[in-house]
Amino acid sequence: MSHPFVLNLIPTTHAANDDAPSRASALLDPREERVLALHKAGVSRRKIVEATGETEHYVRRVTKDVPVTEKLPTTPSERAVARCYPMAIGRTGIKDYQLRSVMSECYGVEWDAEKGRYKGRYTVDQLKRVKERIRERATAEGHSAIFVMDWINADAPLESSTRITQCASNLQDAIQEAVDEFMQASGIQHVEEGLDLTLARKKQEFAARRHILKLAVKGVSKEPVARLQERTMDQVNQLAGTPDAPGVTVAVTKLHHPEPKGDDAFLDYCEGQGWLHPDHYPEVESAISTAGY
Question: Does 59 reside within a domain?
């Protein structure tokens, strides 16, 4: 007697082309789910054993042939790329100060006693590599990474660019007017025999422009303005035949800012200057509180 053919489908039966994640999604127990979640996130087997308390043999068996789908960043560079990438491909891009802030958090900071602030431990080359990797990832995923200068208004980029260009043009005109005024009043009129007067005036005009900028714009020269003025007056007095005349003498002191090591940076600074002893902190804090500050 013949029997009809019956195909029984049971939960443990899978088609040959089922992928690993789908075959286990509904059948995994909580232990396996936890191990696989950590494995897919790129956590090492040893770390999984430490985090779950499972044996290495168990972890090895559960994760066998299961690919890692998302690798956790482990180096400062990888962490910086992972954190900056979403901002870089956003509508407004990532500002320079945002990028540098993340770099400092990922690479660490150190106290600059001369400038009185923290600075990142990353190098210019490391910053460039992070930006390059962000661009490469964006290109691979069909996006565009935008690194934005801090002065740009992301909501009105064209307007802000036009405005700052006009500001620069106005500044150039003002500088040229100042140089022209100087040359008209103090331009070289005579030179020694054998020298080119036109060349001498061009050199003087160039040097005058640089000197005006050094005096007027902080940061143009690495030399402190006070020292520049002192050096200038020494030369002027010698040329005027009065080398003993009093010039501009300004003491240039290299400041040292102690790193804050408490909750109140102001009191830390006072202590660093030798103005306040730590034993007096409670009394000072009480006085500040009583005064309503």
Answer: yes
**Shared-domain flag, residues 176 and 132:** no
- 100-159 pLDDT, tens digit each: 999 999 999 999 988 888 999 999 999 999 999 999 999 998 999 999 999 999 999 999
Query: Can you name the residues that pair with 111 across neighbouring β-strands?
Result: 118
Residues 48, 61: contact at Cβ < 8 Å? no
- Taking alpha carbons only, the member of 101, 94, 129 closest to residue 117 is 101
- Total count of domains within the chain: 4
161 and 139 together in one domain = no
Tell how strand 109-112 and strand 94-95 pair up: unpaired
Give me the torsion for CA of 32, 35, 41, 45, rounded to 10°. -140
* Beta strands 94-95; 147-148: pairing state: parallel
The values of phi and psi at residue 11, to 5°, are: -55, -25
Same domain, 53 and 84: no
Do 135 and 183 fall into the same domain? Answer: no
Q: Which domain holds residue 183?
A: 157-189+196-215
Helices (H) and strands (E) in the chain, counts: 12, 4
pLDDT in tens, 65-86: 888 776 777 899 999 999 999 9
Rounded to an integer, what distance in angstroms lies between the CA atom of residue 146 and that of residue 128? 14
List Cβ neighbours of 22 (8 Å cut-off, separation of 6 or more). none
**What is the reported pTM?**
0.60
82 plus 138 within the same structural domain: yes
